[in-house]
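Repro:
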Amino acid sequence: MRIRSGLRRLDYQLLFSAKANPLPALVSTLRREGLGLDVCSPGDLRLAELAGYSRAGLSYTGFGPTDAELALAAEKAGSVTVDHPNELDRLPPLDERAEIGLRLNLDVNGGLERHGAAGAADAKFGLPAHQLASAVGHACRRGIAIRGLHVHLGSEILETTTHLRALERLARLSQYCPDISWINLGGGWGTPDRGGDTYDWRFFGRHAAQILRTASRPLQLRLEPGGHLTLDTGWLLTRVTDVRAAAGRRPRTLIVDANTNQAVSVLLYGAHHAAHSARPGAAVENYRIVGNLLNTADVFAERTRLPKSRVGDILALGMLGAYASCRSSNFNQRLRPAEVLVSGGAARLARRAETVDDLYQRDMLQD
């Protein structure tokens, strides 16, 4: 793995961000590969149990937790990161195994700023850095040791300078935490969707090692890659149900039996999911690809080049291994498809397709 090679100079821990793809069969595979798991909800904690994680391999980093959620996180996770000193006051009595971290807002931002500037000063995440010393003092008076500092910088970050700038600030701020043992740069590590350079892990690792040597004590570096590990490994397979000729201002169009319920990123921030055809060798033509929802925005691609297509052809839409199934919905009462894990040429069913009856399992029908 390129990440591990780049970080070889460091004491580090990789934690898969469960929110990217909470498929139990996938998460259990990553556990066997030696990754920890970062979770953010009671549902994620149940996922961790299904995937075989022990407490030591779990990090809980939520937002706006209830008292019950904080208590569950403190019981189940090896480390719990709080977002504000108010949450320290609501923690239950902790045993000696519990590690408490504090998320900071450093006003360092990167990646898809137009979609969500998670690291910006006005974002909802994290305590302003100038309040850290006061927060650590507050924790000390409660008998709580702050073991780590955490940040959330954004999404799809491909610039190493963004992470290194945040790491440098965290290393300096670590002096205010007498019990600190780790720094967590969170997630948001980018995966290019149209070619180009990938994240330079060697450059990052080399400079991160230099920065951490300036800290007041040895610190473990924790990272939470999610989409970076899985985004480009996932494909949505769909079948062409109609081919319509161009007419007036409407382009030549392929209608498929999938929809943007399974690719919400298209609607949220115009994500690109390249289409590939299972029909090789045919002459290439331009198409618009649309889904089967009664929704004008249900468009996978306004213009893409594919081999000449006909009804029944299979298309594969890429870059859907993260933030796809977990964001999907049943809008128009459309069903979610099966999910299959493929490894070494072998395929196994990881989640069955929904049925119409599944749509109504939670409803209380009235006579």
